[in-house]
Amino acid sequence: MSRRVLGAVLLGAGGVLALVGTLLDLYRLEGPAGAPPGTSFTLTAWRIAFEAGAGGGPVPRTPQWGYALVPAGGLAVLGAVLQFRSPVLAAVGRFAAVAGFGALAATTWSVHTTVTTLFGGAFPPAGYADRLGPGLWAFAAACPVLLAGALLVQEWPRRVPVPAGAAVHRVDGDDDTPPFGIPVPTDLPSRPGEGRPPSEGNPSTVE
Fold it and tell me: CA-CA distance, 135 to 137, in Å (whole number)?
């Protein structure tokens, strides 16, 4: 498997993993038995969902990270597909792969910072249990996969080979052909009529 093919496979896998993570929980809080409704909830990349039986009060607004995560995963998948197209489209795919990784890494950091800030420290209260959801772990796993894929599909500058001098090959035993050029005769045959005595302009003189 070539480096480009391996990079495309990693880009596709990381992109799909990021897209799947948008459908999973990012954070889960569970209250004890007999807790009042509305104390247990699940945080996703799109909204916060309270348990059944919660009152009809206003639902707190949360950052909707899905609007950044879906394009990030889509760019990664697009970059993987374009690696098998024309050279121009492959170059576009390399930029898409880098952009997808950057968007995913930044959004994953935002999700982690928000969750740890809101629900870290002394949270949760006594008797409650909380946990990070599989969606956050999916984003964390997709980041290094996308990074490896984006690096593998890049065309790094190749080292320019040092030009070598011209090589001259001579075949042993070939005395008729010199190593440089072809043999040139130096003793040319005389033309007809050369070397005859002059006829002193008498056209009737026959030798």
Answer: 5
Give dist(CA 151, CA 164) in Å, integer. Answer: 32
Q: Which residue has the higher pLDDT, 207 or 93?
A: 93
> How far is CA 171 from each of CA 164, 177, 178, 182, 200, rounded to the nearest angstrom?
21, 9, 10, 14, 55
Total-model pTM: 0.67
Domains and CATH numbers, the chain: 3-152 (1.20.140.150)
Which of 92, 142, 115 has its CA nearest to residue 45? Answer: 115
Backbone dihedral region of 173: left (phi > 0), alpha (psi from -120 to 50 degrees) or beta?
left
Q: Is the peptide bond before 124 cis (omega within 30 degrees of 0)?
A: yes
Q: How far is it, in rounded angstroms, from Cα 183 to Cα 178?
A: 7
Residues facing residue 29 across a β-bridge: 41, 130
The pLDDT confidence band at residue 143, using thresholds 50, 70 and 90, is very high
Strands (E), the chain: 27-30, 41-43, 48-50, 129-132
Supply φ then ψ for residue 107, to 5 degrees.
Answer: -70, -40
User: Counting runs of H as helices and runs of E as strands, what totals does the chain give?
Assistant: 4, 4
